[in-house]
Amino acid sequence: MQKSSSLMPKGIALVKLLLLSLCLSATAVSFACSSLSLNQLSDLDKERISYFKDIALGFEFSDSETITRKWASDMTIYVSGKAKKEVRKELDSIITELNTLISDDLTVKLVKNQGKANFHIFFGSGSAYAKLYPEASNLFQDNWGLFFVYWDAKQYFYRGHMYVDTERASITEQRHLLREELTQSLGLAKDSFTYPDSIFQQDWTRTTRYAAIDRDIIRLLYHPSLDVGLMPANWTVF
What is the CATH number of the domain that holds 181? Predict the structure, then answer.
């Protein structure tokens, strides 16, 4: 899609939105929360915005358009397969954390009836996952965790699925993979080498918690004022 100068004001508005969303959070301590303007952005603020662009536009394993996408309605999760108690406890913890970060009018929640779910988490082998979802057949061999999401013409997700390999990965690794793949399923779908402690770190890690910058970009994507369909041109403000 051709870039247009008419997109630039929205980019500036989103920079202000980032600051606003952080000001509204309990952890915001380093921002001037009034009279927001570009010349007030610190290097750290700009790093957050840059990281959002790296993570939230497009997908690793897809040539789809590099724009923002997200869920517009509740993400209702059905779980199947065999997961250890520690991993199921981690899932509960992740869902609780996500619901504290999301300010859109939606909730991430578990359901017991698969017919009422729009997202499926499978714990088991990659080969078993590929039998359920053939689109994973060429990917599971080299990936202990995978996710797939599907969106409508308006760029909102309406269903998806993921897996955590319980045969090749240790318990700690399963917890890490669960957090990473589920969070990426929200629309933060890319990896980056920039922050070693980020859940989106491209190198292999075993982190089982969000870095501060991870929490910031989750807040931003799921702020009610942030639109789907935003492209890189919307963010060229520096």
Answer: 3.40.390.10
Q: For the whole model, what pTM was predicted? A: 0.82
The CB density around residue 136, as the number of other CB atoms within 10 Å, is 22
Report if residue 114 sits inside a domain.
yes
- In the numeric block, the tokens 């053939």 are attached to 134
Measured between alpha carbons, how far is residue 59 from residues 121, 127, 164 in Å?
19, 23, 19
What's the one-letter identity of residue 131? K
Domain annotation covers residue 121: yes
Which backbone phi and psi does 173 adopt, to 5 degrees? -65, -35
Question: What secondary structure letter does DSSP report for 201?
Answer: B
In a domain, 224, yes or no: no
Number of domains in the chain: 1
Name the 3-class secondary structure at 184.
helix
pLDDT single digits (tens) 127-146: 999 999 999 999 999 899 99
Residue type, 194: T
